[in-house]
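Fill-in record for Beta-glucosidase.
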Amino acid sequence: MNVAFDPGFAWGVATSAYQVEGATEADGRQESIWDAFTRVPGAIAGGQDGTTAADHYHRMAEDVAIMADLGVGYYRFSVSWPRVMHADGTLNTAGVGFYDRLVDTLLEAGITPWLTLYHWDLPTSLPGGWLNRDTARAMAAYAVAVHGVLGDRVRIWTTVNEPWCSAVLGHGTGQHAPGHADPWEAFTATHHLLLAHGMTTRALREIDPDARLGLTLNFTPALPADPGNPADVDVASRIDATAHRMWLDPLFRGGYPDDVIRGAGRAWPADAVRDGDLPIIGTPVDLLGVNFYTTDRVRARLPGEAAPGPLSIRGRRIPSANLLAPDAVVVDRGLPRTAMGWEIDPTGLRDLLLRLHRGWTGPAGIPLFVTENGGAFPDHVADDAAVHDDDRIDYLRGHLAATREAIEEGADVRGYFLWSLVDNFEWAEGYARTFGLCRLDESGGRHLKDSARWYSSVCRSGGFEG
């Protein structure tokens, strides 16, 4: 079977600032909430942090050369807000200079820059963080300042990446920075993140009408264990409400889903949702980024069955991330899993892309891009220092085939970005989970894995033999 994509299909790789840059104290960079969170005992596996990460800040030219050799056409990276803005809201010219050089280096190599403004590393100098409405305004100002330096060359801008993680894992479960566990905080942060997206989109549109603007959402579809059982269907729907529709509906349909507001009850931040906010959030975009790694099959708790208790991770008790469905029970389907423990289900990506196109983006007339997809596997280094990662190649092969199937069935999908270019700091998992096409040795040297060479052939040919 030949899996081929159209010539204009965008092939890329993705990273984020805190995960790869390191240099956390260089050139006047502020502290971020992730710098602070990594100091919390038990928060990060191995007590690790992003101080060095993949040292991309100092090895940027080398990394761009690797991308050029691989033949990728796009590099999706994020700008570190605390690196480019001083605490008083003025631009840090030394910090933004790194991205100025990065963009020039990419363009010289024939690689299109795809810039993400917010990938979780919020400055700690912002009072209240995402619980404060002023943070949304601050983000719009930060975006305009960065555009003033890079906007003549960067034509694709993502406002926020995976706001569900920032809101729910950061404020609802405590697994991510800033490490809080309060449903009201999670819903409040949700609204302010969406408001920040809308305010930023409007601000950039005003100064640059021709820029391509969008945001990236993460999706983990919840499938009922028994589609004929109303209880299982209900619990899957309640997960979907806060994982997906709470984000998509205000962006594309003008308001939050009624079942989210009802289900949240007293935790819903009615005072935070002000007149005029929803039209701002619904400001038209040019594209939607889709981050996908897995699906979950879930069932309702049986009568008399003990309720799922909070997880205990490194001595910290973590409540359910399913804000409206803490009673959900995940069913093991016996599928292969990645090192993250996530089941491998490529058909879930196909079905998701079709659902998004038919329900939200298609009617709005905007395309989809798979902006993150990839697998962490326990890479084994051979005697010759090579990494023969056939499991990662199989993962990519399946998900690219699923993407192609979605396109053939009508989904308007125009690009695929592999996560990630290099092994990096994987948030609460530290450095124990490796997603990269490049392995890092102890001195930070880059070594291409077999999957890098395979993906390179895909990028250059526009497909592969199934």
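KEY FINDING: Residues 261 and 268 are 6 Å apart (CA to CA).
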